[in-house]
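S.,

As promised, the iron/sulfur cluster run. Input:
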Amino acid sequence: MTSANLYIDEINFLKYLNKNGCIQCGFSSCEEFINAIIKGIKKPHDCPLISRNKAYAFEVIQKIKDLWPDVPLLMHPRPALTGLVELNTPDSGSLVLISGNNEFTEQILLTVLSTTVCPFFIIFVDTDGNTVDMAMVYQTLTAERVKKALQDTKIEAKVKRRELIIPGLSSSIKDGIEKLTGWNVRVGPKCAAELPLFMSEIWIPP
Ligand code: SF4
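Predicted complex:
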């Protein structure tokens, strides 16, 4: 089976380091250090400037490929759960993530989120079962559908902050969602595996 591109090779690890070239890790640049991590020669915590959570986030990404399902390249829509999932007992201060209701998308996202005890609300918008990239092509992930999902899940009553994190591949609907719903939208990474680094301050190890 030919596998789909999950964009894991496009993660820019460098942007999550200080990039000050302090060489305390024994390498002449952060870039060299990242290459050493990828090759397994160094561990993230060998950089003394990386916090415990961020070092853990780097490690999660290194291992995530072994945990993910094999996603076929050519896939018909695979509708799965729509609506709200509450992970790790979220409260009114917890983050709200948005994604599509494709079976593989949901498996991948929940696999990544299971690597932290940080609480989240996740809303799986009805994208007719399309993955996020295909939903953008077929226009089944739209500002209108996000608005409907917010209303159907009654998430407004559960959180204080009006802020959503949407997948990086859906960045083009950010402004539309903000205009239609009044919620602030943060564009997350293209690859779900990058979420631990994107939110490394709160990515608390189990
Ligand atoms: S110690 Fe950390 S911040 Fe300094 S050069 Fe190495 S990787 Fe970069």
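The pocket of iron/sulfur cluster is lined by residues 17-18, 20-25, 27, 30, 33, 47-49 (CB under 6 Å). Helices lie at 30-38, 52-67, 103-113, 132-138, 143-153, 174-181, 195-198.

- D.
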